Amino acid sequence: MKCLPFYYREKKHDPKSLQSISGRSNSSNYVEAEMKRSGSELNSLDASDNSTDSLRRNAFPSLSQRPSNLRVFTVPELKSATKNFSRSVMLGEGGFGCVYKGLIKSVDDPSTKIEVAVKQLGKRGIQGHKEWVTEVNVLGIVEHPNLVKLVGYCADDDERGIQRLLIYEYMPNRSVEHHLSPRTETPLPWGRRLKIAQDAARGLTYLHEQMDFQIIFRDFKSSNILLDEQWNAKLSDFGLARLGPADGLTHVSTAVVGTMGYAAPEYIQTGRLTAKSDVWSYGVFLYELITGRRPIDRNRPKGEQKLLEWVRPYLSDGKKFQIILDPRLERKQLFKSAQKLAIIANRCLVRNPKNRPKMSEVLEMVNRIVESSVGANPQPPLKSVVASAEASQGNEIKNKKMNMDPNPDCNWLRMWRPKLLRACRIL
Question: Enzyme class, one word (predicted)?
Answer without folding.
Answer: transferase
